[in-house]
Specification:
28 strands, Neuraminidase, four-stranded antiparallel sheet, 2 helices, 4% helix, mainly beta, 434 residues
Length: 434
């Protein structure tokens, strides 16, 4: 199945419908599929010039059930679900500025709880409890994850450039634990030693929390920053080139381990994009991400002998130790141009693990390439050959009905995202894995 869900107009506020990429705006519960959307309010100035919308998949189309009747916000609103009892929740971050003036300002994060059987009814509002009174703003960079079978959830929300506030809701509905996750430090980075971590993939499993995200700081290399300013005219440019991981065996104890740097493209000003994270029944942590070796705008001046390379990478960790690391797909200058893009996991009820990803560039005959592919990761550490998924409209950026959002493992792969060549429309695809 391939369907268009809704179209949107750019809000020009730095965010968009896919901006909360580490979480998801798509959930499946009791054979029903729901999605949250983002609508631009034409009569409101940035930054808080959007509102959430709620959509329900029907047999041949999508129905818009409701939209935020009160609040204005900047970012999309991720979702989680408790599949067995039919509750699903949406994370909102409405502004507290009532005057509608241009700019951001303070915000108050909250949750909206819906029922599968009465999804068009007004939501039950749930206010998270935090440590103290954090001064949240419209730039939340929030992450929302759930342990669906245990009816527990966790919410992270960034506070400035130093840390993320987090709060945990137990199965009894109480906010039992909350605290701060402080960002990693790097004394070699003299201009910005605190490395803000954003767009993380977060999993909550039996009160253990796993967190993998990418560095997101203003260009720390003074020479590169000056050169980039000549190109863009801006004083800022962000790095996105170091992948960090941390975890807590028991979040009710409140502590996280020291940060681990899983990957880096810092030497040649490259790029890393987090893909997905899954924790299996033996507590092994599976992580997938993409890398680009270098920023070609800087190559001639700073590293003229380096070759461009794109990789889809996979790692398996246990107790913070990397047990397996593989490059699943790569394209290298002079050797191939089938470029891997965003990747997500799909877990089946019998424990099989697949990677669904996008590929662009050109094929071996030089023809333009734009398609989605699937790889199975086997328990013995090997992987299957890539298989093309015959979508009529390939998805370039997408969410899944993820187990990290409380969705159950499934042979049905649900996807919500943007199609190649149609970035102003959010589309849905459903694929059955046999």
């Amino acid at each position: 199945m391939e369907q268009e869900v809704y179209s949107f107009e750019p809000a020009d506020n730095g965010a968009g419908p896919m901006w909360c990429s580490g979480s998801t705006c798509l959930v499946r519960a009791r054979d029903e599929v729901f999605a949250s959307g983002l609508e631009t309010l034409k009569d409101q100035p940035p930054l808080n010039n959007c509102r959430w919308t709620l959509w329900h998949a029907r047999a041949t189309t999508w129905e818009r059930l409701q939209s935020d009747p009160e609040g204005r916000t900047r970012e999309p609103c991720p979702m989680v679900v408790f599949s067995d009892d039919g509750r699903f929740l949406l994370s909102a971050n409405p502004t507290l500025n009532a005057d509608g003036k241009r700019g951001g300002g303070p915000a108050r994060p909250g949750l909206l709880m819906f029922s599968v059987t009465k999804a068009a009814a007004p939501a039950v509002r749930v206010l998270p409890e935090w440590s103290g009174r954090p001064a949240f703003t419209e730039h939340s960079y929030r992450s929302f994850a759930a342990d669906g079978p245990n009816h527990e959830l966790i919410l992270f929300q960034n506070l400035g450039d130093t840390h993320a506030e987090w709060t945990f809701r137990g199965s009894d509905g109480g906010w039992t634990t909350h605290g701060q996750l402080h960002w990693p430090t790097d004394t070699n980075q003299t201009t910005q030693p605190v490395i803000r971590v954003c767009y993380p993939d977060v999993a909550l499993v039996d009160q253990a929390v796993y967190f993998a995200g990418v560095s997101d700081i203003i260009e720390p290399n003074p020479e590169w920053r000056a050169f980039k300013k000549q190109l863009t005219g801006r004083d800022w440019d962000y790095d996105f080139r170091r992948l960090f991981f941390t975890w807590s065996e028991d979040i009710t104890g409140g502590g996280f381990h020291e940060w681990i740097e899983l990957a880096s493209r810092d030497r040649t000003c490259g790029w890393i994009t987090p893909g997905d994270l899954w924790v299996d029944g033996d507590d092994a942590v599976h992580i997938v991400w993409t890398e680009r070796a270098l920023d070609e705008r800087l190559r001639e001046k700073f590293f003229p002998d380096e070759k461009q390379r794109y990789e889809l990478n996979y790692a398996q960790l246990r107790d913070g130790e990397v047990q397996l690391r593989q490059t699943l797909v790569f394209a290298e200058e002079g050797k191939g141009n089938e470029i891997p893009g965003l990747a997500r996991f799909q877990v089946t009820p019998d424990g099989r693990l697949f990677v669904f990803y996008y590929v662009s560039g050109t094929d071996t005959s030089g023809q333009a390439l734009s398609e989605n592919r699937l790889i199975e990761l086997r328990p013995d550490g090997t992987s299957s050959p890539p298989m093309k998924v015959p979508l009529k409209y390939p998805l370039t950026s997408f969410f899944t009905a993820s187990t990290r959002a409380g969705c159950l493992p499934s042979k049905t792969l649900d996807l919500l995202g943007t199609r190649a060549g149609k970035s102003d429309t959010i589309s849905y695809a459903r694929i059955r894995l046999w």
